[in-house]
Amino acid sequence: MKKILVTGALGQIGSELVIKLRERYGINNVVATDIRKAEGIIAEGPCEVIDVTDANQLYEVAKKYQIDTMMHLAALLSAKAEENPKLAWHINMGGLVNALETARELNLQFFTPSSIGAFGPTTPKDKTPQDTLQRPTTMYGVNKVAGELLADYYYTRFGVDTRGVRFPGLISYVTLPGGGTTDYAVEMYYEAVKNKTYTSYIAEGTYMDMMYMPDALNAIIQLMEANPANLKHRNAFNITAFSAEPEDFASAIKKHIPDFTLEYQVDPVRQKIADSWPNSLDSTAAMEEWGFKAEYDLDKMTSNMLEKIKIKIER
Ligand code: AKB
Fold this sequence. Notes:
about 325 residues; alpha/beta; Rossmann fold; 2 domains; six-stranded parallel sheet; 14 strands; globular; binds 2-amino-3-ketobutyric acid
Protein backbone atom coordinates (compact mmCIF):
# COMPACT_ATOMS: atom_id res chain seq x y z
CA MET A 1 0.00 0.00 0.00
CA LYS A 2 1.57 3.26 -1.11
CA LYS A 3 -1.26 5.42 -2.38
CA ILE A 4 -4.60 4.78 -0.74
CA LEU A 5 -8.09 6.08 -1.49
CA VAL A 6 -10.67 5.87 1.30
CA THR A 7 -14.38 6.23 0.54
CA GLY A 8 -16.75 7.23 3.36
CA ALA A 9 -13.75 9.00 4.90
CA LEU A 10 -15.85 11.22 7.18
CA GLY A 11 -17.75 8.32 8.76
CA GLN A 12 -17.12 6.59 12.08
CA ILE A 13 -14.33 4.32 10.77
CA GLY A 14 -13.05 6.51 7.93
CA SER A 15 -12.38 9.62 10.02
CA GLU A 16 -9.93 7.68 12.23
CA LEU A 17 -8.59 5.34 9.56
CA VAL A 18 -7.49 8.25 7.33
CA ILE A 19 -5.44 9.77 10.16
CA LYS A 20 -3.84 6.43 11.05
CA LEU A 21 -3.02 5.64 7.41
CA ARG A 22 -1.53 9.10 6.90
CA GLU A 23 0.70 8.61 9.95
CA ARG A 24 1.89 5.29 8.55
CA TYR A 25 2.15 5.96 4.80
CA GLY A 26 2.50 9.75 4.59
CA ILE A 27 -0.10 12.51 4.53
CA ASN A 28 -0.06 12.93 0.74
CA ASN A 29 -0.48 9.19 0.14
CA VAL A 30 -3.98 8.93 1.58
CA VAL A 31 -6.86 10.51 -0.33
CA ALA A 32 -9.96 11.03 1.81
CA THR A 33 -13.19 10.95 -0.18
CA ASP A 34 -16.74 11.39 1.03
CA ILE A 35 -20.09 12.68 -0.21
CA ARG A 36 -19.56 15.63 2.17
CA LYS A 37 -16.73 18.17 1.98
CA ALA A 38 -13.95 17.46 4.47
CA GLU A 39 -13.04 20.02 7.12
CA GLY A 40 -10.55 20.18 9.99
CA ILE A 41 -7.74 17.64 10.30
CA ILE A 42 -8.95 15.43 7.39
CA ALA A 43 -8.81 18.46 5.06
CA GLU A 44 -5.09 18.88 5.86
CA GLY A 45 -4.32 16.11 3.32
CA PRO A 46 -5.70 15.31 -0.13
CA CYS A 47 -9.52 15.23 -0.17
CA GLU A 48 -12.22 14.89 -2.81
CA VAL A 49 -16.00 14.96 -2.76
CA ILE A 50 -17.24 11.72 -4.35
CA ASP A 51 -20.63 10.10 -4.69
CA VAL A 52 -19.78 6.38 -4.82
CA THR A 53 -22.91 5.66 -6.81
CA ASP A 54 -21.26 7.59 -9.67
CA ALA A 55 -18.78 5.09 -11.14
CA ASN A 56 -17.04 7.69 -13.25
CA GLN A 57 -16.22 10.02 -10.33
CA LEU A 58 -14.66 7.17 -8.39
CA TYR A 59 -12.60 5.98 -11.34
CA GLU A 60 -11.39 9.48 -12.27
CA VAL A 61 -10.27 10.36 -8.73
CA ALA A 62 -8.47 7.02 -8.33
CA LYS A 63 -6.72 7.62 -11.65
CA LYS A 64 -5.87 11.25 -10.90
CA TYR A 65 -4.02 10.32 -7.69
CA GLN A 66 -2.47 7.11 -9.12
CA ILE A 67 -4.05 5.08 -6.36
CA ASP A 68 -2.87 1.51 -5.74
CA THR A 69 -5.22 0.62 -2.84
CA MET A 70 -8.88 1.35 -2.21
CA MET A 71 -10.59 1.09 1.16
CA HIS A 72 -14.29 1.25 0.43
CA LEU A 73 -16.22 2.22 3.57
CA ALA A 74 -19.13 4.31 2.22
CA ALA A 75 -22.36 2.53 3.20
CA LEU A 76 -25.63 2.88 5.10
CA LEU A 77 -25.68 1.02 8.43
CA SER A 78 -28.30 -1.50 9.56
CA ALA A 79 -31.05 0.65 11.10
CA LYS A 80 -30.85 3.29 8.34
CA ALA A 81 -30.94 0.53 5.72
CA GLU A 82 -34.11 -0.89 7.31
CA GLU A 83 -35.72 2.56 7.15
CA ASN A 84 -34.96 2.89 3.45
CA PRO A 85 -34.11 -0.50 1.90
CA LYS A 86 -34.12 0.71 -1.70
CA LEU A 87 -31.67 3.52 -0.95
CA ALA A 88 -29.51 1.01 0.98
CA TRP A 89 -29.38 -1.27 -2.05
CA HIS A 90 -28.48 1.71 -4.27
CA ILE A 91 -25.64 2.95 -2.03
CA ASN A 92 -24.37 -0.30 -0.51
CA MET A 93 -24.48 -2.47 -3.62
CA GLY A 94 -24.22 0.21 -6.33
CA GLY A 95 -21.27 1.83 -4.54
CA LEU A 96 -19.53 -1.50 -4.00
CA VAL A 97 -19.82 -2.60 -7.62
CA ASN A 98 -18.44 0.76 -8.76
CA ALA A 99 -15.56 0.52 -6.30
CA LEU A 100 -14.73 -3.06 -7.33
CA GLU A 101 -14.88 -2.12 -11.01
CA THR A 102 -12.40 0.72 -10.39
CA ALA A 103 -10.19 -1.75 -8.52
CA ARG A 104 -10.37 -4.17 -11.44
CA GLU A 105 -9.66 -1.53 -14.09
CA LEU A 106 -6.77 0.09 -12.19
CA ASN A 107 -5.44 -3.11 -10.59
CA LEU A 108 -5.93 -1.89 -7.00
CA GLN A 109 -5.67 -3.78 -3.75
CA PHE A 110 -9.13 -3.59 -2.18
CA PHE A 111 -10.64 -3.60 1.31
CA THR A 112 -14.31 -3.43 2.23
CA PRO A 113 -15.91 -4.34 5.56
CA SER A 114 -18.66 -6.85 6.09
CA SER A 115 -20.40 -7.10 9.46
CA ILE A 116 -21.99 -9.34 12.08
CA GLY A 117 -25.11 -8.23 10.17
CA ALA A 118 -24.21 -10.73 7.44
CA PHE A 119 -25.61 -13.45 9.71
CA GLY A 120 -29.25 -14.21 10.39
CA PRO A 121 -31.57 -15.91 12.88
CA THR A 122 -30.76 -19.41 11.56
CA THR A 123 -26.97 -18.91 11.98
CA PRO A 124 -25.45 -20.64 15.06
CA LYS A 125 -25.66 -17.89 17.71
CA ASP A 126 -22.67 -18.66 19.94
CA LYS A 127 -19.08 -18.84 18.72
CA THR A 128 -20.47 -18.34 15.20
CA PRO A 129 -18.06 -20.17 12.87
CA GLN A 130 -16.19 -18.46 10.04
CA ASP A 131 -17.98 -20.56 7.43
CA THR A 132 -21.60 -21.12 8.33
CA LEU A 133 -25.24 -20.56 7.37
CA GLN A 134 -25.90 -16.96 6.28
CA ARG A 135 -29.56 -16.12 5.72
CA PRO A 136 -29.88 -12.54 7.07
CA THR A 137 -33.35 -11.02 7.41
CA THR A 138 -32.37 -7.34 7.06
CA MET A 139 -31.55 -5.30 3.94
CA TYR A 140 -28.16 -4.47 5.49
CA GLY A 141 -27.48 -8.18 5.93
CA VAL A 142 -28.55 -8.95 2.38
CA ASN A 143 -26.14 -6.23 1.19
CA LYS A 144 -23.31 -7.57 3.35
CA VAL A 145 -23.66 -11.20 2.22
CA ALA A 146 -23.91 -10.11 -1.42
CA GLY A 147 -20.88 -7.85 -0.85
CA GLU A 148 -18.83 -10.72 0.60
CA LEU A 149 -19.69 -12.89 -2.41
CA LEU A 150 -18.99 -10.08 -4.85
CA ALA A 151 -15.56 -9.39 -3.34
CA ASP A 152 -14.77 -13.14 -3.55
CA TYR A 153 -15.98 -13.12 -7.16
CA TYR A 154 -13.70 -10.22 -8.16
CA TYR A 155 -10.78 -12.14 -6.67
CA THR A 156 -11.49 -15.52 -8.28
CA ARG A 157 -12.77 -14.14 -11.61
CA PHE A 158 -10.49 -11.12 -12.16
CA GLY A 159 -7.64 -11.60 -9.69
CA VAL A 160 -8.42 -8.38 -7.76
CA ASP A 161 -6.64 -8.55 -4.38
CA THR A 162 -9.82 -8.17 -2.30
CA ARG A 163 -9.73 -8.46 1.49
CA GLY A 164 -12.24 -7.84 4.28
CA VAL A 165 -13.45 -8.49 7.81
CA ARG A 166 -16.85 -8.89 9.46
CA PHE A 167 -16.85 -6.03 11.94
CA PRO A 168 -18.73 -6.24 15.22
CA GLY A 169 -20.22 -3.07 16.76
CA LEU A 170 -17.44 -0.48 16.75
CA ILE A 171 -16.99 1.84 19.71
CA SER A 172 -15.17 5.13 19.50
CA TYR A 173 -15.13 8.61 21.04
CA VAL A 174 -13.94 10.43 17.91
CA THR A 175 -16.82 10.33 15.40
CA LEU A 176 -20.31 9.19 16.34
CA PRO A 177 -21.73 6.25 14.39
CA GLY A 178 -24.97 6.95 12.53
CA GLY A 179 -27.87 4.63 11.83
CA GLY A 180 -26.48 1.42 13.33
CA THR A 181 -27.98 -1.08 15.76
CA THR A 182 -24.90 -1.30 17.99
CA ASP A 183 -24.72 2.52 18.34
CA TYR A 184 -26.39 2.25 21.77
CA ALA A 185 -23.05 1.32 23.32
CA VAL A 186 -21.38 4.54 22.14
CA GLU A 187 -24.39 6.60 23.26
CA MET A 188 -24.23 4.99 26.72
CA TYR A 189 -20.67 6.24 27.29
CA TYR A 190 -21.53 9.81 26.25
CA GLU A 191 -24.67 9.87 28.40
CA ALA A 192 -22.78 8.38 31.35
CA VAL A 193 -20.30 11.27 31.26
CA LYS A 194 -22.91 13.97 30.56
CA ASN A 195 -25.93 12.85 32.66
CA LYS A 196 -24.96 9.69 34.60
CA THR A 197 -27.95 7.89 33.11
CA TYR A 198 -28.86 6.21 29.81
CA THR A 199 -32.04 4.76 28.34
CA SER A 200 -31.17 1.83 26.09
CA TYR A 201 -33.16 1.04 22.95
CA ILE A 202 -31.66 -2.49 23.04
CA ALA A 203 -33.13 -4.87 25.61
CA GLU A 204 -31.36 -6.32 28.63
CA GLY A 205 -29.76 -9.67 27.81
CA THR A 206 -29.12 -8.92 24.12
CA TYR A 207 -25.53 -9.99 23.45
CA MET A 208 -23.61 -8.67 20.45
CA ASP A 209 -19.93 -8.62 19.51
CA MET A 210 -18.14 -5.32 20.08
CA MET A 211 -14.69 -3.81 19.47
CA TYR A 212 -12.84 -0.61 20.32
CA MET A 213 -11.85 1.44 17.27
CA PRO A 214 -8.03 1.15 17.71
CA ASP A 215 -8.36 -2.64 17.38
CA ALA A 216 -10.54 -2.26 14.28
CA LEU A 217 -8.00 0.06 12.60
CA ASN A 218 -5.11 -2.27 13.43
CA ALA A 219 -7.08 -5.19 12.00
CA ILE A 220 -7.59 -3.40 8.67
CA ILE A 221 -3.90 -2.54 8.32
CA GLN A 222 -2.71 -5.96 9.46
CA LEU A 223 -4.99 -7.76 7.02
CA MET A 224 -4.02 -5.49 4.12
CA GLU A 225 -0.32 -6.04 4.85
CA ALA A 226 -0.69 -9.82 5.36
CA ASN A 227 1.11 -12.24 3.08
CA PRO A 228 -1.54 -13.27 0.51
CA ALA A 229 -0.17 -16.82 0.50
CA ASN A 230 -1.48 -17.23 4.07
CA LEU A 231 -5.03 -16.05 3.31
CA LYS A 232 -7.44 -18.91 2.78
CA HIS A 233 -10.53 -16.74 3.26
CA ARG A 234 -9.51 -13.27 2.04
CA ASN A 235 -12.91 -11.60 2.48
CA ALA A 236 -15.16 -11.45 5.48
CA PHE A 237 -12.97 -12.72 8.32
CA ASN A 238 -14.89 -12.97 11.59
CA ILE A 239 -13.23 -10.65 14.13
CA THR A 240 -14.33 -9.70 17.63
CA ALA A 241 -12.92 -8.24 20.85
CA PHE A 242 -15.70 -9.19 23.31
CA SER A 243 -19.39 -10.02 23.46
CA ALA A 244 -21.55 -7.81 25.68
CA GLU A 245 -25.13 -6.90 26.58
CA PRO A 246 -26.26 -3.47 27.86
CA GLU A 247 -25.88 -4.47 31.54
CA ASP A 248 -22.24 -5.42 30.90
CA PHE A 249 -21.48 -1.91 29.65
CA ALA A 250 -23.35 -0.42 32.62
CA SER A 251 -21.35 -2.53 35.11
CA ALA A 252 -18.07 -1.49 33.49
CA ILE A 253 -19.12 2.19 33.56
CA LYS A 254 -20.21 1.94 37.25
CA LYS A 255 -16.61 1.07 38.20
CA HIS A 256 -15.81 4.71 37.24
CA ILE A 257 -19.19 6.41 37.79
CA PRO A 258 -20.82 4.48 40.69
CA ASP A 259 -24.16 6.34 40.52
CA PHE A 260 -24.67 5.65 36.79
CA THR A 261 -28.12 4.22 36.04
CA LEU A 262 -29.34 2.24 33.03
CA GLU A 263 -32.96 2.19 31.94
CA TYR A 264 -34.72 0.60 28.97
CA GLN A 265 -37.10 1.77 26.30
CA VAL A 266 -36.76 -0.87 23.62
CA ASP A 267 -37.05 0.12 19.97
CA PRO A 268 -38.77 -2.85 18.27
CA VAL A 269 -37.08 -2.24 14.89
CA ARG A 270 -33.52 -2.18 16.18
CA GLN A 271 -34.24 -4.94 18.70
CA LYS A 272 -35.46 -7.21 15.90
CA ILE A 273 -32.24 -6.56 13.99
CA ALA A 274 -30.13 -7.28 17.08
CA ASP A 275 -32.07 -10.47 17.83
CA SER A 276 -31.25 -11.78 14.35
CA TRP A 277 -27.47 -11.35 14.88
CA PRO A 278 -25.02 -13.69 16.65
CA ASN A 279 -24.19 -13.43 20.36
CA SER A 280 -20.49 -13.98 19.73
CA LEU A 281 -18.21 -14.77 16.79
CA ASP A 282 -15.37 -17.25 16.49
CA SER A 283 -12.37 -15.36 15.07
CA THR A 284 -9.95 -18.32 14.87
CA ALA A 285 -9.51 -18.03 11.08
CA ALA A 286 -8.39 -14.37 11.38
CA MET A 287 -5.98 -15.28 14.20
CA GLU A 288 -4.49 -18.19 12.28
CA GLU A 289 -4.32 -16.64 8.80
CA TRP A 290 -3.05 -13.13 9.61
CA GLY A 291 -2.47 -12.92 13.36
CA PHE A 292 -5.55 -10.92 14.41
CA LYS A 293 -5.59 -10.08 18.12
CA ALA A 294 -7.67 -7.45 19.95
CA GLU A 295 -5.91 -5.44 22.67
CA TYR A 296 -8.95 -3.91 24.36
CA ASP A 297 -11.42 -5.85 26.48
CA LEU A 298 -14.54 -4.20 27.92
CA ASP A 299 -12.84 -2.78 31.05
CA LYS A 300 -9.77 -1.44 29.26
CA MET A 301 -11.93 0.16 26.59
CA THR A 302 -14.31 1.65 29.18
CA SER A 303 -11.50 3.41 31.09
CA ASN A 304 -10.17 4.90 27.87
CA MET A 305 -13.59 5.89 26.46
CA LEU A 306 -14.68 7.67 29.64
CA GLU A 307 -11.37 9.52 29.98
CA LYS A 308 -11.40 10.64 26.32
CA ILE A 309 -15.08 11.69 26.34
CA LYS A 310 -14.54 13.76 29.51
CA ILE A 311 -11.66 15.61 27.84
CA LYS A 312 -13.72 16.13 24.68
CA ILE A 313 -16.74 17.49 26.57
CA GLU A 314 -14.70 19.77 28.85
CA ARG A 315 -12.88 21.35 25.90
C1 AKB B 1 -24.58 -1.59 12.77
O1 AKB B 1 -25.00 -1.66 13.92
O2 AKB B 1 -25.30 -1.48 11.78
C2 AKB B 1 -23.09 -1.70 12.55
C3 AKB B 1 -22.69 -3.11 12.28
C4 AKB B 1 -22.59 -4.07 13.39
O3 AKB B 1 -22.43 -3.45 11.16
N1 AKB B 1 -22.40 -1.16 13.68
